[in-house]
Write a structure and sequence with these properties.
- It is elongated, with a radius of gyration of 30 Å.
- The chain has a five-stranded mixed sheet with strand order 2-4-5-7-6. A two-stranded antiparallel ribbon has the order 1-3.
- It folds into three domains: 190 residues, Orthogonal Bundle (Arp2/3 complex 21 kDa subunit ARPC3); 66 residues, Signal transduction histidine kinase, dimerisation/phosphotransfer (DHp) domain (Helix Hairpins, Orthogonal Bundle), CATH 1.10.287; 143 residues, 2-Layer Sandwich (Heat Shock Protein 90).
- By secondary structure, it is of the alpha+beta class.
- The structure holds adenosine-5'-diphosphate (ADP) and magnesium ion (MG).
- The site of magnesium ion has 4 residues, from α10.
């Protein structure tokens, strides 16, 4: 097999488990954050296993360069523990397979981890992480080439080897990570759309329920009309029918109430990361609607016990309402304030705003001013925030815009 054949085979070994992961997480719409991480880890270990077990290697180590890519991905996804484990596996592998110096290998992998910690909170940190990987890798390749791989070779041959290896590693890292990133973005965008479609589903099921409730009631009214002109003995015949129909309606209402009960599953979540992810998902929608947006999310982390999916649902609901309140030259901004044991998320739009009557009634079940509205978005959101022991309220001026405040306790 040629070097390129080897590189392609190894690339497939890396991408195959990751592709399965991406398709799986896309297919199961509401996967919890924890499960998602678990599946990603599974994919990374599978990649690593396939590379070590079946990966193509030559005396020269070109294709083996790719073995570091699962580590880059796991660092980029903040899987700290996995990163350490993968590093240990890679150090052992390099040591036994190529007999590189153990101390230098440990220094190399410590350097990757240090670079990750240094760029942890930086903007564009993924690019920074890849770049530092490339730099550290290049330094290592120079050292390994001179002392281990081709110590006897002429200088030019070494130079050629070093340049070729570093370029190959850089190029393939960028490509693989770009593919992963792009496909994840597309999936996230689609899941946001799904969220919005869910509201449409609720609307449709409401129509169905109204229909189901109206039918038995109409039957009851028909019998009651008939009763008016009947003898007493006829009552015996009609009353059970009416009572039956009413029971059916009540049962249906009970079922519906069960169905609409909200469940909250809280887990340790980085709120700022959640906001960042929500931002990426909502951005294409804002762009499609020609809305200018500004997200001021701190470059930091804030761990809280919340239901990741539900909080995101609230934010999507709020943004959707703002988008629907659109007028010319519209702006939406998100700000976060942290004070004592409370964090406030403020979402402001310069849309059509609300009058006093609307502002007073907002949050009532089924209250809507839209022709196709459900009037469930705000009430559902308020309930979710309430279940998190938080508060959600609106300030608005007609014709000027609306501010939504979401306050959540940090502990
Ligand atoms: P729906 O969006 O289906 O109407 P919601 O519960 O989401 O139901 O919203 C209820 C009502 O609150 C909307 O019909 C609208 O009148 C008002 N509203 C909510 N958010 C905004 C906003 N950002 N700007 C103007 N009006 C809003
Ligand atoms: Mg709405």
């Amino acid at each position: 097999m040629s070097i390129f054949g080897g590189v392609i085979t190894n690339t497939v070994y890396i991408l195959f488990p990751l592709t399965v992961y991406i398709i799986y997480t896309a297919y199961i719409r509401n996967l919890e954050q924890k499960e998602k991480k678990l599946f990603l880890e599974l994919a990374l270990y599978s990649s690593l296993y396939m590379l070590i077990r079946y990966g193509v290697m030559f005396k020269t180590v070109y294709p083996a360069l790719l073995f570091n890519i699962p580590l880059v991905i796991s660092l980029m996804k903040d899987q700290k523990l996995s990163s350490i484990l993968i590093s240990i596996i890679l150090i052992a592998f390099n040591y036994y397979k190529f007999h590189f110096s153990l101390i230098l290998l440990i220094i190399e992998y410590l350097a990757y981890f240090t670079a990750y910690l240094v760029f942890y909170n930086k903007k564009n940190r993924n690019i920074a992480i890849i770049n530092s990987f490339i730099i550290i890798r290049t330094i290592t390749i120079i050292h390994q080439t001179i002392f281990y791989i081709m110590p006897e070779s002429p200088f030019l041959e070494m130079l050629y080897y070093i340049l070729f290896s570093s370029l190959l590693f850089s190029f393939l890292s960028y490509i693989i990570i770009m593919i992963l990133d792009k496909s994840e973005n597309i999936i996230n965008y689609n899941s946001t759309l799904n969220e919005l479609n869910r509201e449409k589903e609720i609307r449709e099921s409401l129509f169905k329920i109204t229909h189901e409730v109206k039918n038995p009631l109409a039957v009851c009214r028909g019998y009651l009309d008939m009763l008016e002109n009947q003898q007493k003995k006829e009552y015996k015949k009609y009353v059970p029918i009416i009572s039956n129909e009413i029971n059916r309606t009540l049962n249906l209402m009970d079922d519906f109430l069960d169905y609409t009960k909200i469940k909250i599953v809280k887990e340790e979540t980085d709120l700022y990361l959640l906001l960042d992810e929500m931002k990426e998902e909502i951005k294409p929608l804002l762009k499609n609607n020609n809305i200018e947006s500004k997200f001021n999310i701190p470059d930091d982390e804030l761990y809280m016990e919340v239901d990741y999916n539900r909080i995101k649902q609230v934010l999507v609901n709020v943004f959707k309402n703002s988008i629907e309140a659109k007028k010319d030259k519209m702006k939406i901004s998100l700000d976060v304030y942290q004070k004592n044991n409370q964090v406030t998320i403020k979402i402001s739009d310069t849309g059509i705003g609300m009058n006093k009557e609307t502002l007073k009634r907002i949050g009532e079940n089924f209250f809507t001013t839209k022709r196709n509205g459900t009037g469930l978005g705000v009430s559902l959101s308020k309930e979710i925030i309430h279940l998190h022991s938080g508060k959600m309220y609106y300030k608005s001026a007609e014709g000027k815009g609306t501010d939504v405040y979401i306050e959540l306790p940090i502990n």
